[in-house]
DNA sequence: AACCCGGGGCC
DNA sequence: GGCCCAGGGTT
């Protein structure tokens, strides 16, 4: 940390703050969560923005705020409705934790989002970034909010060569931002850093020529802006073969399954499916056995309708899709029978939305 | 410290 | 196809 301190000692911190904040106040984008400083709105936006781009978040944020405009609304909302509002955003534990935390605020803080680091950081799903971001933006408290954007910007400003993929590296950047941050306008400072990372100091082609803080940038001075930040590579995803069944009965009902409350895609709904293995049995036979022995339904399956590929960060699903007609259901089935109308209210992962889209394109088959 | 947890858009 | 994104929780 000593070398970082020496770099900071050589910086014109007041000038950097001024140039950054001045630029941010002029050039900031109009975004729905910037309409006011309502801590609940800021909080929801920060959770949605975790690992998710601004353009993706905007429509979700607007719909979410229409449905759950206050802490009380979200605290008392039906969990399935909340999941449905998050459908397609990914990282679904974010919204499960958010609702749990908002319930805590409703019950223990009279619905007022706490304004101290100690209290706010204890809430579910609130880590060092989110607590710093919400407390600075909504309550104007001078805490660092170090995300990927900020690590990229600061690694260039100070010419820091530590691997930002390593967890402990974030401490170096929190130390640096803690010394750089404006005590007068911490909200504008933090948002300015992130805005700069999004608009100017981008990963592969930083626009240094028009950067408002280019005269403060060590990487530019050294000509190494394209080499920073240093980030080690992640391993490639592994592939899994799956088979899934879109099942109807003669009354037109669908049969769906709720995923477990932990792990991948927790609490979301899906068409019954299993991981298939190469061997003597065909995929269709494995799926038939699974439906009968595990899922608790007997069904006649058609031929392979098609395949879906879905890529996660660490995983690839190759799903063979079959359509089928349910002939009998056991009492202890793990499937839920729903009408096609009711089906619309259940939150499905995108992979299974793709399967449903296949079914809608072949209505004669089902 | 390493791994898990989604999805989309850009190059 | 690889990389990145306004990260946090679990082990």
Automatic annotation (TrEMBL):
SMART domains: ENDO3c (SM00478)
Pfam families: HHH (PF00633), HhH-GPD (PF00730), NUDIX_4 (PF14815)
A single GO molecular function term of this UniProt record: metal ion binding
Catalyzed chemical reaction(s): Hydrolyzes free adenine bases from 7,8-dihydro-8-oxoguanine:adenine mismatched double-stranded DNA, leaving an apurinic site
InterPro entries for the chain: A/G_AdeGlyc_MutY (IPR005760), DNA_glycosylase (IPR011257), Endouclease-III_FeS-bd_BS (IPR004035), HhH-GPD_domain (IPR003265), HhH_base_excis_C (IPR023170), HhH_motif (IPR000445), MIG/MutY (IPR044298), MutY_C (IPR029119)
Cofactor binding note from Swiss-Prot or TrEMBL: Binds 1 [4Fe-4S] cluster.
Needed cofactors: [4Fe-4S] cluster
The entry's keywords: 4Fe-4S, DNA damage, DNA repair, DNA-binding, Glycosidase, Hydrolase, Iron, Iron-sulfur, Metal-binding
EC number annotated for this UniProt entry: 3.2.2.31
Domain spans labelled HhH-GPD: 48-199
Keyword Acyltransferase: no
PANTHER family per UniProt: ADENINE DNA GLYCOSYLASE
Family recorded in the similarity comment: Belongs to the Nth/MutY family.
Free-text function comment from the UniProt entry: Base excision repair (BER) glycosylase that initiates repair of A:oxoG to C:G by removing the inappropriately paired adenine base from the DNA backbone, generating an abasic site product. 8-oxoguanine (oxoG) is a genotoxic DNA lesion resulting from oxidation of guanine; this residue is misread by replicative DNA polymerases, that insert adenine instead of cytosine opposite the oxidized damaged base. Shows a powerful dicrimination of A versus C, since it does not cleave cytosine in oxoG:C pairs.
Protein name: Adenine DNA glycosylase
Species of origin: Bacillus pumilus (strain SAFR-032)
């Amino acid at each position: 940390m000593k070398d970082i301190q020496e770099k900071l000692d050589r910086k014109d911190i007041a000038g950097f703050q001024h140039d950054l904040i001045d630029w941010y106040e002029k050039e900031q984008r109009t975004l729905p969560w910037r309409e006011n400083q309502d801590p609940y709105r800021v909080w929801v936006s920060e959770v949605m923005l975790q690992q998710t781009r601004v353009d993706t978040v905007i429509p979700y944020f607007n719909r979410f705020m229409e449905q759950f405009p206050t802490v009380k609304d979200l605290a008392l909302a039906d969990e399935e409705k909340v999941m449905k509002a998050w459908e397609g955003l990914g990282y679904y534990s974010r919204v499960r934790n958010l609702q749990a935390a908002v319930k805590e605020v409703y019950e223990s803080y009279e619905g007022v989002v706490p304004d101290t680091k100690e209290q706010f950081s204890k809430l579910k799903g609130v880590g060092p970034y989110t607590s710093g971001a919400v407390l600075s933006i909504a309550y104007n408290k001078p805490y660092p909010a170090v995300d990927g954007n900020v690590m990229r910007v600061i690694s260039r400003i100070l010419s820091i060569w530590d691997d930002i993929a390593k967890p402990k590296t974030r401490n170096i950047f929190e130390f640096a931002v803690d010394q750089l941050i404006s005590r007068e306008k911490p909200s504008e400072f933090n948002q300015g850093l992130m805005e700069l990372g999004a608009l100017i100091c981008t990963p592969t082609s930083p626009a240094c020529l028009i950067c408002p803080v280019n005269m403060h940038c060590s990487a530019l001075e050294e000509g190494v802006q394209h080499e920073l930040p240093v980030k080690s590579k992640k391993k490639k995803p592994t592939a899994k073969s799956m088979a899934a069944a879109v099942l109807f009965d003669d009354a037109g009902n669908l049969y769906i399954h709720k995923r477990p409350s932990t792990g991948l895609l927790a609490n979301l709904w899906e068409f019954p499916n299993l991981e298939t293995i190469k061997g003597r049995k065909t995929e269709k036979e494995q799926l038939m056995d699974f439906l009968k022995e595990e899922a608790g339904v007997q069904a006649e399956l058609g031929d392979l309708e098609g395949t879906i590929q879905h890529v996660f960060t660490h995983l690839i699903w190759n799903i063979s899709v079959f359509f089928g007609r349910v002939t009998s259901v056991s009492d202890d089935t793990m499937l839920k029978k729903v009408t096609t109308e009711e089906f619309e209210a259940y939150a499905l992962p995108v992979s299974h939305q793709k399967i449903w889209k296949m079914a809608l394109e072949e209505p004669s088959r089902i």
